[in-house]
């Protein structure tokens, strides 16, 4: 926490300057009103970042879903459905797989079966379609990864930045991982520093706060990760293997990840199991026959009978209905759920910030009386 612990590709800096110039011009066209942004007659909350991948958007979106549903609000999520095989607007149902809507929307629909989960490359069109829904009508839309989608003017922008790679320490693509210059943070009403370690020190909060240099009207929060118990991806097959809750020195784990930043998960699993082998694939990886052969080979190398094939919830969304998933591995495949926790005793403040925005900007309806901002 005492300095930059990642590298940028400095020889690509001239390309980053060209890229940055294009992004700057685009943002100015929006700022000056030459390209129009559209507002909507209901609360729209954007959860996004300035960097590519790995800041924890999905668990933060899930947190907001729980929070707002606890307030008896009808919530919908909207994303582009990254790497899906379909186009246009789709409203997910129980049969929608990751190929149709993307792995993260599929994960969301699995966790919240009655949640409206929609995908559309054109977020404006997607919001209009969601507003047509009735029985019940949508009260609030959560936009997943839409901070750069400026044709929609969200009422509340929540910007995420990784504790280990702050946006103010990073560089523009392709030298670094920023999609736009760090000053883009000025469009956010709320900034969240994510993936903070459990042993973060009070001085680290102060250092990060100073580095970010936010405006007085911007709210800053810090969050960490909280992992749950592994859950069977194929529960109908899980009965023939032992329960994974029995973590211990005897447990042999093959961890499969297709996410941008697997390090925190790997560290967590290593604290719970005696031996961990890790197969890391790229973010949103599309598993093929060769991958499954490799997974089988590595799993067979694990010794003893206390073996576990562990993955993320996002990867599980792709693996669950994959036609090439080996039948013999299904009983051993478990997903490790993850949630966020708001640090510094700021959970109630964070919750109330979100709830107050929604209550002050309701759709044309009578909003139920306000309840306390109960922790999720």
From TrEMBL:
**Superkingdom to which the source organism belongs:** Bacteria
Q: Name one GO cellular component term.
A: plasma membrane
Q: Does the keyword Lipid metabolism apply?
A: yes
Catalytic activity, EC: 2.7.1.130
Q: Which reaction does it catalyse?
A: a lipid A disaccharide + ATP = a lipid IVA + ADP + H(+)
Q: Which residues bind ATP?
A: 51-58
Biological process, per Gene Ontology:
lipid A biosynthetic process; lipopolysaccharide core region biosynthetic process
The GO terms describing molecular function are: ATP binding; lipid-A 4'-kinase activity
Identify the keywords attached in UniProt to this record, alphabetized.
ATP-binding, Kinase, Lipid A biosynthesis, Lipid biosynthesis, Lipid metabolism, Nucleotide-binding, Transferase
Pathway(s) served: Glycolipid biosynthesis; lipid IV(A) biosynthesis; lipid IV(A) from (3R)-3-hydroxytetradecanoyl-[acyl-carrier-protein] and UDP-N-acetyl-alpha-D-glucosamine: step 6/6
InterPro entries xref list: LpxK, P-loop_NTPase
Q: Which family does it belong to?
A: Belongs to the LpxK family.
What is its biological role?
A: Transfers the gamma-phosphate of ATP to the 4'-position of a tetraacyldisaccharide 1-phosphate intermediate (termed DS-1-P) to form tetraacyldisaccharide 1,4'-bis-phosphate (lipid IVA).
Query: What NCBIfam families does this protein's entry cite?
Result: lpxK
Q: What is this protein called?
A: Tetraacyldisaccharide 4'-kinase
**What is the originating organism of this protein?**
Candidatus Bacteroides merdigallinarum
Q: Which gene encodes it?
A: lpxK
């Amino acid at each position: 926490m005492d300095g930059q612990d990642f590298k940028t590709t400095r020889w690509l800096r001239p390309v980053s300057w060209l890229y940055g110039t294009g992004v700057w011009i685009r943002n100015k066209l929006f700022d000056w009103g030459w390209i129009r942004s559209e507002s909507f007659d209901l609360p729209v909350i954007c959860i996004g970042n300035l960097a590519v991948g790995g800041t924890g958007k999905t668990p933060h979106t899930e947190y907001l879903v729980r929070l707002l549903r606890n307030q008896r609000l009808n919530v919908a999520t909207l994303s582009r459905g990254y790497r899906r095989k379909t186009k246009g607007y789709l409203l997910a149902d129980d049969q929608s797989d990751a190929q149709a809507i993307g792995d993260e929307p599929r994960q969301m629909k699995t966790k919240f079966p009655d949640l409206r989960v929609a995908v559309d490359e054109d977020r404006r069109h997607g919001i209009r379609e969601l507003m047509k829904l009735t029985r019940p009508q949508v009260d609030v839309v959560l936009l997943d990864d839409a901070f750069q989608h400026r044709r929609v003017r969200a009422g509340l922008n929540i910007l995420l930045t990784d504790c280990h790679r702050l946006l103010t320490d990073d560089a523009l693509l392709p030298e670094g991982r920023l999609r736009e210059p760090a000053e883009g943070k000025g469009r956010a009403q709320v900034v969240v520093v994510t993936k903070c370690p459990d042993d973060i020190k009070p001085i680290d909060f102060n250092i990060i706060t100073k580095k970010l240099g936010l405006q007085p009207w911007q709210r800053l929060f810090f969050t960490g990760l909280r992992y749950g118990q592994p859950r069977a991806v194929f529960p109908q097959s899980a009965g023939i293997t032992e329960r994974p809750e029995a973590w211990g020195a005897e447990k042999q784990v093959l961890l499969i990840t297709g996410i941008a930043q697997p390090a925190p998960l790997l560290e967590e699993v290593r604290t719970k199991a005696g031996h961990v082998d890790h197969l890391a694939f790229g973010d949103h990886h599309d598993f093929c026959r060769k991958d499954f052969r490799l997974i089988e080979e590595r799993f067979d190398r694990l010794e003893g009978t206390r073996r576990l094939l562990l993955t993320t919830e996002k990867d599980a969304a792709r693996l669950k209905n994959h036609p090439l998933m080996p039948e013999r591995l299904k009983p051993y495949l478990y997903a490790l759920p993850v949630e966020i926790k708001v640090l510094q005793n700021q959970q109630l403040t964070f919750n109330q910030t979100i709830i107050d925005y929604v209550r002050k900007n309701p759709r044309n309806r009578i909003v139920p009386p306000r309840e306390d901002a109960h922790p999720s």
